[in-house]
Amino acid sequence: MLGKANRTDQSQRSVDALKPLREQLVALLRGGHAHVTFDDAIANVPEEQRGVAPKGLEHSAWQILEHLRIAQRDILDFSVPPTGGYQPMQWPDDYWPKSPVPQGPRAWEQSIAAIRKDQETFESLILNPDADLYKPFRWGEGQNLLREALLIADHNAYHLGELIFLRRLLGIWNK
Predict the structure, then answer these.
(1) Angle ∠(87,88,90) on CA atoms, nearest 5
(2) Is residue 119 part of a domain?
(3) Most buried one in 92, 102, 117, 135, CB count within 10 A?
């Protein structure tokens, strides 16, 4: 009986030892330390400017927002494949919307809501004390939950910076 209790105590200490790392990963995903937050980057983008790509830039604010949504969803699907398994997407065609303009009056808000929902889902994966951050997925090429969290954070930071640059060129950044 004593041996079983010791294993439980050791297991509990291991889980508790990862709690600070899990919390730091969530903070990294939310941004705001070394870069702007998602909410700040998308705040008050005038509807008439969402589909404008300034001269010299390849994408509009809408395309960047949708790219963030699509890529984050793909990483979530890779981390926890839906029933039927993970289906890889084709780069770059599947990751970028063709149209620079949102497809309808509610598309902008729907994309934002989907990004937030998927981020919450991913954060719950990270914060789950039973989730092994280091264990390679059975699919893929050695990726694990830690790597996917860092990938989302890195990818989002890059494109949020791109969005701020675009907004500055359009004269709609007031921070």
Answers:
(1) 135
(2) yes
(3) 102
CA 49 from centre of chain: 24
Question: CATH number for the domain including 164?
Answer: 1.20.120.450
Count CB-CB contacts under 10 A for residue 79.
Answer: 23
Q: What pTM, to 2 d.p., does this model score?
A: 0.89
Total of domains in the chain: 1
Q: pLDDT of 87-128, one tens digit each?
A: 999 999 999 999 999 999 899 999 999 999 999 999 999 999
Contact 152, 75 (CB under 8 A): yes
What single DSSP character describes residue 137? P
Cα 58 to Cα 52: distance, rounded to the nearest angstrom: 10
Is residue 7 domain-resident?
Answer: no
C-alpha to C-alpha distance for 21 and 148, rounded to whole angstroms: 14
The DSSP string of 34-94 is SS--HHHHHTT--GGGTT---TT-S--HHHHHHHHHHHHHHHHHHHSPPTT---PPPTTTT
Domain hosting 85: range is: 20-170
